[in-house]
Amino acid sequence: MADKYDVIVIGAGPGGYVSAIRAAQLGLKTACVEKWVSKEGKTVHGGTCLNVGCIPSKALLEASHKFVEAQHDFGDLGIETGDVKMDVKKMMARKDKIVTNLTGGISGLFKANGVTALEGTGKVLSNSKVEVTGNDGEKATYEADNIVIATGSVPVEIPPAPLTEGLIVDSTGALEFQEAPKRLGVIGAGVIGLELGSVWNRLGSEVTMLEAMDTFLPMVDQSIAKETQKLLKKQGLDIKMGARVTGTEVKGEEVVVKYTDSEGEQEQTFDKVIVCVGRRPYTQGVLDDDSGVTLDERGFIFVDDHCRTSVPGVYAIGDAVRGQMLAHKASEEGVMVADIIAGHKAEMNYDAIPCVIYTAPEVAWVGMTEQQAKAEGIEVKTGSFPFAASGRAMANNATEGSAKIIADAETDRVLGVHIVGQHAGELIAQGVIAMEFGSSAEDLALTCFAHPTLSEAVHEAALAVDGHAIHVANRKKRK
Questions:
Q1: Which residues are catalytically annotated?
Q2: Among the four given CATH numbers 3.30.720.120, 3.90.1150.10, 2.115.10.20, 3.30.390.30, the one describing domain 355-464
Q3: Three-state SS for 360?
Q4: Where does 238-342 show beta strands of DSSP type E?
Q5: pLDDT digits (tens, 9 = 90+) for 95-125
Q6: What is the pTM of this model?
């Protein structure tokens, strides 16, 4: 029997590594198991987020956005650039360097906080034991008073579009293109599809997005979603809604995609296809048959509001459990669980988790949509403000989009905030903080915001809830 730990965390993604560091900071003897191996054969931490998800995609989004700005927008600012070109291979190398720096940083944080890094694949056994199979095949068994499962998720594959090396790829493969394909098909117009489609559209690809659902971004307030759809189509993304892929055929270096829409059977030829139809929990092989931990019908580990599984002392967090598949949600759950293990009282507010799509402009939201509130029988009042009326947005040459606040008509409590616009992912934090503290729309309206800032759009939207917006015409009767 190897060493015994107070806590063993399985998975070193944004949920697992944060949970392990927090547990160690609280004085608990902690180990974290990770199986991810780099191209060089070394174990790397950070999970999907740092290695093939959040971070590398944002590096490409930022580079490609600056490229488009230099091509088309700098002239408006009086900046003459001449013939601007993109070196895709250099862009990819920069992305890889950022990933290496960050994943290496986690290893350093483990050492600094006294977290033991165990290399290999972890499996939960019965009686508080964890089996770790090393990359060399050797097995070791560890005992822990508490176990935290943070194994994350993997891209969903669909039978009509089996992955084919270099031609039909998932989100990971889409981060490795060495040049922009002339014709790019993206199956799925959700968060990941829109981000990856935007990257390659900016770099010259003709991008067609095939989305099976009829409603664009149903999780976003529909007034904001419709505005977003118009803006992205204006940029050149051909978004086909109600397009259900029925099959693919690889013909040499091309892929023929067959799909059905409202007009019947269709087909389109692409040079590359990205499959972005969602992610599924990575729980296969994580639990021994005798572990006692239960899964739901979709493969998620069953947990309560405090991430406790059906086995005392065993917790699960992040993409492996119910709720939104978001890195920051996983991190906060990891902190909550570590605090609970250490004997503290900890809660997590699942109603105040922000979501962001890092297109340009960005889309961000927290809480309810107007449609959700009405479906639940909640009478609401709303306020909106366009960035076109923002002095800072004009100065930034970024007047697209708007901010919207949904409040309870009776109590004035903020139920949701939805934004499409420059830096929406940063602005949404104001809505999250407001909701975390049970703020009313009036509280935001009475708050002093710096001028000139993009944040003033949130302020004006709050004022508009009761018809008091200053810098747009008010259609509501003033109170």
A1: 451
A2: 3.30.390.30
A3: coil
A4: 238-241, 244-251, 254-261, 264-270, 272-275, 279-281, 314-316
A5: 999 999 999 999 999 999 999 999 999 999 9
A6: 0.96
